[in-house]
Amino acid sequence: MAIKRLDVQSLNIPFKQAFVHASAVRAMTEAVLVTVTNGDGIAGIGEGCPRRYVTGETIDSIRDFIETHCEQCMTFRSVQDVKQWVAEHVSIIDQNPAAWCAVENACLDLFGKEAGLPIETLLGLPSLNGRFQYSAVLGTDNLQSFEKQLQRYRSVGFTDFKVKVTGRLQDDIDKLGRLHSFKDSKLRVRLDANNLWGDAERAWSYLKQLPGRITAIEEPLKVGDYDGCRWLAREMKVPIILDESFLRVDQFALIQSDPPSTWIINIRVSKMGGILRALAVAKRAKEIGIPVIIGAQVGETSILTRAALTIANSYRGIVIAQEGAFGTLLLERDICDPPLMFGAAGRLDTTALSGAGLGLIRL
Predict the structure, then answer these.
(1) pLDDT at 303
(2) What CA–CA distance (Å, rounded) separates 359 from 336?
(3) DSSP notation for 216-263
């Protein structure tokens, strides 16, 4: 059925607590909601999170993208139409991944609802099932705030942690010391530096002073410094997680000759340019033996949480961690009811997600 309307609005939802890391301080969402509606009034919803320091996008650039391509998008009638547009507009989506993500998600949600099928069935993927395990994320707040967050996470059973490092050595030593003081053999800790250091030797000199066992380091150097990251991975004997430095499937050409243990790819659906392109990255990662993290932009609503589950469910064998699904633990409100979010010990049960499309109910 024809798409009769395509609407876009910015989402400005306050956080319950500001989130701080080396690249930004966030106190509310920075996202857009796209809604596509057919002639029967059935609506599909999609979300995109522009990040200037990741993809160069802004709320305004997303609006410009949608204004430019709205008429073309409203001609879509099927998943095949969406796939064809993706294949024919690679460079455009490369420049506007979050914008396209919002449009694509909305269309796939609509087509699923029209067909009465979950999005996985619509795409020929394994049915969504079971539980998914999420990581705790600790920002660069002061030590007192860090300890409160850490105690809350530990009190409900979290053992997998992503810790933002600050570049303030004693602060980072203190925080990681608190975390490793639990002496839990199940504890897994990875670091996220958000492109903090300008060269690999400075990063190595800093990181080797931090206490405890670290399982991986995310984006320690400037975006795209693959050589520096290779050197650091060898010296630290831990993999480097590529986030801002990996946005497209063609970037595998830059890393596929390395030992697979060198790298982990953080797949965030919004920065990748939607579910279809994120699936392509996961597929290629599996082929060459590189593990992935299914990530999230800070402040995502239930829509992108649900989209990410499609990737995680299809590639469980190479997923070493999942991020996001904070829902109203972070947001003052979500746009779906009930919000899709993890529970005790960071687990999310998908039993109730059996509806058509994304299976979400918009408020």
Answers:
(1) 98
(2) 10
(3) EEE--SSTT-HHHHHHHHHHHTSPEEESTT--SGGGGGGTTTS-GGGE
